[in-house]
Amino acid sequence: MSAAVQKALLGSVVTLMRPLVRLLLRYGIPLGSFSEAAKQVYVEVADTEFALPGRKQTNTRIAVLTGLTRKEVLRIKRLPEQQNVLLDERYGRATRVISGWLNDAEFHDADGQPAGLPMEGEHGSFAQLVGRYSGDMSVRAMADELLRVGAIRQRADSLLNLVNAAYVPSSGEEDKLAILGTDVADLVATIDYNVDPEIPGTRFQLKVSEESLSPETVAVFREMSNHHSLALLNNYDTWLTERIRAEGPTTSGKGSVRAGVGIYYFEQETPPDAGD
User: What stretches in the chain show pLDDT beneath 50?
Assistant: First the structure.
């Protein structure tokens, strides 16, 4: 890799790290803790993704790839994993249940909207919904989770209503920050795929933005983009749900692929010109 490419990549990393460092400092995470986490990821990725073809990865090669010493590589390998696997699994199961409630006519009312569901029952119940879209997670545990994040509420007649079409915790900073990590990782993985010269084709990666907008225009654009983005994602979600129902459930592993589309909104104040 040329020095110019490396310089461009490091420049992009500095840019994407600014909001990340702002977040880290806000939550009192010092440079040393971030550095330790970065070392752990360097070792993990070098170990699992950069072995020579047909050869087992060695600590010596990991040290060469990462710039760490063999002793440091061994120390880092003994550290507990940072990734929150349990939250990732809970996130996936909860979003599948909400998606099924939104798109499966069996759980709709006469107007085609998500119906209020009894907790138990053979047909049109929350238990049936969870069993169909969440695998072996218990019905009570799923209800408690969706109640906790504000996605559903329990009515006076004990029926459960869907009140939020997205699994976004309304409380609990730990869950919100963990979901942030998953979403940003997906975006960076797409960029990595698109810039890899050895991979043919590209994955969809576009954005629209404009400079020098008035606050009034920004407010209108924010509302309009939220409305249209949600409608588009709902269309994708409906299509995916119908495909899954037609194909039958699959388990993670060989022959199973995770795919999706993410949309995010951003705005930032434009600093005044130096001469103003």
Answer: 274-276
User: Backbone phi, then psi, for 120, in 5-degree steps?
Assistant: -120, 165
Segments making up each domain of the chain, as ranges: 1-82, 85-162, 207-276
pLDDT reported for residue 212? 87
SS3 content of the chain, % helix, strand, coil (to 5): 55, 5, 40
pTM of the model: 0.65
Q: How far is the C-alpha of 262 from the C-alpha of 186, rounded, in Å? A: 9
Rounded distance between C-alpha atoms, residue 100 and residue 14, angstroms: 40
Return the H-helix or E-strand segment holding 209.
none
Q: Is the CB of residue 154 less than 8 Å from the CB of residue 147?
A: yes
For residue 242, what are its two tokens?
Answer: 């119908």
160 DSSP β-pair partners: 117, 154
pLDDT value of residue 252: 53
- In sequence order, what are the beta bridge partners of 193? none
**Residues 128 and 104 sit within 8 Å (Cβ to Cβ):** no
Largest CA distance in the chain: 71
Q: Does domain 85-162 have CATH number 1.10.10?
A: yes
Tokens of 215: 């606050």
Cα gap 123→128, rounded to integer Å: 7
pLDDT of 274 reads 44
Cβ within 8 Å of residue 61, ≥6 positions away: 46, 50, 51, 52
Position 145 scores a pLDDT of 85
Do 134 and 97 form a contact (C-beta atoms < 8 A)? Answer: yes
Cβ distance 256 to 250 under 8 Å? yes
DSSP designation for 171: S
